[in-house]
Amino acid sequence: MPKNGAQITFSVAPALLAINFASNFKKYLGIGGTKLTIGIDDLVQQVKQVNKIEEVIGEESGFTVRGHGRNWTTQEHDSLVIDTHNQCYFWNSTGEHGDVIEWLCKRKGWDFKAAVEYLCKRGGLQSPDWRKQDPAVRMAARQREDVFTVFNNLTHKWLLAEPAAMEYCHGRGWSDETITRTRLGFTGNFDQRESYRSELINSLGGAGVDVRSPAAVAILGFKGNVHQWCVDYGVTPRADWNDRNEIPGVIGWNRLVYPHFMAGRCNYFSLRGFEGREHFNPPVELVGDRQIYVNPKWSSSQPMCVVVEGKADAITLDQWDIPAIALNGVAADDRIMRFIGATKENKRAMFFLGLDSDKAGALASSKVATMLGPMTRIIDWRAAADQAFRRLKTDIEDVEIKDANDVLKASIKKGLNLDEVQKELGYAINTCLSFVEMISGWAGQQEGVERDRAMGQALAVIAMMSEMERAQYKKALAKLLKVDQRELDRMVKTILDQAKKKDADGDEVVYTLGGWIDGWIVEYLYIREKHEAKLAWRDPNGNVASGDSVVINGTRYKPEQPEETFKERGIFFPSELGSLKKPGELALIIEAFLNSVYILPNELTAKIISYWVLVTWLYDCFDALPYLRAMGASGAGKSELLYRVGLVCYRLMMAGGADTVSTMFRSVERFHPTVLFDEADIEKSDASNEIVKFLNFGAMKNHPIWRAEEFIDENGKKSYKSKMYPTYCPKLIGMRRDFKDDAVGNRAITFKVQERGMRELMARNIPLHVTEDIHQRATAIRNLMVRWRLEHWQPEIEINMDYYELDISARLNQVTGALMMVAKDDEALRSEMKTFMRGYYLEMTQNKSMTIIARVIESILKIYQYPDLHKLMVVKEEGGNEKILVGHVTRIANEIIEEMNSTEDEGHASNEQEQKFNKRDLSPHRIGRLIREDMQLQMSRRTNMGFYVYYDQERVNELARQYGIDPAEMGPQPGKPSKTTDVQLEIPS
Prior knowledge:
With 989 residues, the protein is α/β, with parallel strands linked by helices. The chain has six domains: 93 residues, DNA Primase, Chain A (Alpha-Beta Complex); 157 residues, DNA primase, catalytic core, N-terminal domain (DNA primase DNAg catalytic core, N-terminal domain), CATH 3.90.980; 143 residues, Dna Topoisomerase Vi A Subunit, Chain: A, domain 2; 59 residues, no CATH class; 160 residues, Rossmann fold, CATH 3.40.50; 123 residues. Helices cover 46% and strands 14% of the residues. A hairpin with a 5-residue loop joins strand 31 and strand 32. Helix 5 crosses helix 6 and helix 18 packs across helix 20. The N terminus and C terminus are likely disordered.
C-alpha cells in the first residue's frame, strides 16, 4: 500500500481495464492450468539445475573455487567469474563465457550430446532419448549460439572503437561500466562494411562455424542461388529474397546491437538505429522466434524483478542495480511466466510492471499484470519521476517521460546527482500502486452500469489474492471500492464459493469441440499419439493459451472425448499451439509443403492454393468463400492433390467416410470441417441430388438444407419434424467433368491436372503415398494455423470493395472476396489473382457464348453499332428512349447463325447447340420471350409493327460480358459491311 504522502490517481481509461479475469482467477485457485511441452530447452534447464556450475568447474578443472553470494571465482584465476545465480561463467582475461555445458565442451573437447549425457549421469537424471530429438534441430540451436557469441565479441569491440556509437550510448545515459557489462555492440558503418565482414568471417571460421549456416547468413547475408540455399538448409524463403536473389545481412548497417544472453550464452540479438525509433529483429526463418531480454542483474533467485517493454529500459535498470526483463515484443504467455518465476506454483519474486506510460503501454500492462498477479506493482514512470524529482527540489514539466530510460536522460539533462536519483526513484517505485489497488480504485470511480461491470472485474482480481494479502489490504480496498469491509468480505466469499462449487460438483462443465463462446474463440486440439484432447482459446483481451479446460463466465469447458475416427484420421485437428506467423510467411510454408508432395502446374497455382488454405482457417469470418476444384481425367491425380492440400486445411473430413448423406450432414453440423468430395462420392446415384444441392448452397452463409426427420411424438406415434442442416464450409472437389448445370463452377476456383509419369515423380522426389513424415509435417503446419486463427478470428470480416474485379461476375467476386482479404498484404499476388480470375471467367463463359441468347445479344449490338443498321432499325422516341423491333433482332440473329454455320463443313456441326442453329427456327415469338424472360430487357406494348425492345446500353454490355462477347467486335469491321446494307427490310411475321 502507498505510504503517507504518496499521490494516488486512477486515470486509466475504462477500455484499458475492461478485462475478463475468469481464466486467470481459476488459475490462481489451482483450477485448470496449462501443461507445457518439454523440449530440448527444458532438458538443458533440468541438467543445469542438478549440476551446479561452481561444483563442476571445481571437479573438472582442479581449480580451487571460492566465494559467497552471487559471483564466485577461483584461487588460480581471479579473472574467472562464476555467476551462481544464472549458472554461467565469464573468463574476463580471455573473453570466454558460457554455461556448464560450454565449460565441459571447451575443457574436454566433447560435443553437446556427450556433455549433456555426462551431466545427466552425474546429476542422476535419465539419459535423454536422442531419437525423439531431431539432431539437426539440436545442433542448429547450439551452432546458432556459437555464431551469436562470436558476433557479440566482435561487435562489442567495434562499439568501443567507434566514437559516434559510444556517444549515442552515453547520450542514453549509460556509463562505460554498463556498456561493458551488457556487452552492447555495433554493426559497423557502411563505408567499412567489407573490412568488418571479412573479420567476422575469419572469426567464425576460426571457431569452426559454418559461415553458410542460417544464423551466420542472418548476420553476413547471402548472394547467389537463394532458392537452392534454402533447399540445402531447410529454410522457408521470403518472397523478396527470391525476387532479389539475395538475403540481406546486417554488417555495416550503422546500428546498435543488443545481445540477448541466457545462462552466459548469446542466444539472440536485435538492433536499433541511432536516429528515430527504428528497431530490427533478425528473420524468424533464419534464427527462430523473437526472444525476451534479461539484464545482467536479473537471475531466477532475485527477490524482485521489473518487467519492462524495451531493452534500453532493462539496461537502464541494470545501471540502477535493479533486475529487469524486457518483453521485446514477445507476447507474455504461460511459458514466459514460468521462466521468470511468475506462476502461482513457482512465484519467487515481487514483480513490478513498468511498461511505457502511454495508451498502448497501459493496455499491455493490464494484460501482463493479470498474468503476473494482483500484487504486481504498476510503475507509472512519469509519476515516479515526478515524485523523485520533487524530493530533489526540481520538476519534470519541461521533459517528456514515458519509460525508465527517459527518467535517466532527464536526470542528466537537469544535472542531478545520479546516485540520489537512484535512491529516490527506488523509493517511488516501492510505493507504486499494486494492480489490485489500481483496478479497485478505477472501479470505485465508475457509476451506473459501468460500475457493475467494473466491480465484477475488480472483485475477480481481489479473489486471486491470498487470504493474508486480502486481510492486510481489506480496509484500503473497501475504501477504494466505496463499500464497507463486511460487504467486501461477502462479495469475495460469494465469488470463491461459486468457483469452488462449480469445479467440485461438475454441474457447470460443458464438453465442446470449440466455437465462439461468450466473446472467447475456442479450438479443439487432438494429440494422436496419446489419443488425448485439449482446448486452445483466445480470451476477450486477446490472450492466447491452451490447456485441459477453460473457464468462461463461470462455466468450465472441456474438450469432447476423442473418437476412434480421430485416431484413424477420419478428421484432422491441430495437436498444439504453434508460434505466431504472418499470413505471407504461412503461405510460403504451405507452398513449400505442397511443392514437396505434389507437382503443381505452375507457381501461381501453388500461391493461390496456399492462400485458399489460409481462407479455410478463417472461413466463418466471411459471408462467402470459393471452393477448390481439381478437374482431370481418371488417374490424373486429382484425389491425391486434394487430399494433400486438405491435410493443412481447417479440420479436413472425407465425404466418402459417411455411409449416408444424412451422416455427412450431421458431421458437417458437428465439426464445421473442410469437406473433400471425390467424383465417386458425387456420382452416387442415391445421393447425387442432395450433394449437388449441398454444393450449390454451401458457398454462402445462411443457406441451410431442410430435411424431414422421423421422431416419436408424445402419443408414441411416428411423426416427422423439419430440421435445418448448415451447408457453409470449405470444400475440396475432384471431378472429371462439369455438372450439366454447373453452378458449382461459379462458386469454385478450378485447376486442371494431368497425369505425371514415374520418371517425373522420381526426379522431383514426390512420394506416391502420404507417408508418416508428410502427416507429421502437415500437423506442424496445422499447429501454426490454429495459432493464426485464434489471433485473427473475428465474428465478421468485411470485404474491401477495392478488391473486387469488375470484369468478372458478381457471383465469382462474391466467393473470391475472402481470398483477396487474406492476401491483402500481398499486392503482387492480388494482381496476379485478378488476372487469373479474368482468364478463368472467360473460360467459364465459353459455353454460354454458344447459346441462342448470345446470338440475340450480338444481334442487338450489331444493329445499334453498325451505322447503316442503326439508321434503318433503331427508332428514337420523343423522350429520347431508343428501341428496336423484335423482328429486326430476329432477322440479324439468324444471319449471324447462318454465317457461323458456313464456317463448318455442311452436316458436321461441332456440337448439339450448333445443330439446333442449323434448323434456323428462330422466330420473333421465341426471341421476344428470351429478351423478356432471360435477358430481362424492357419491351414495349404490341404495335401494328409488332413488339419493340428498348435499348439499355449498360444492361446490354453487362449481358455481353456474362456471355463472353466483346461489344467492340460487334461493330463495323474495315472492309466488311453489314449483310443487310442496301437491302429492303422485310418484317418477319
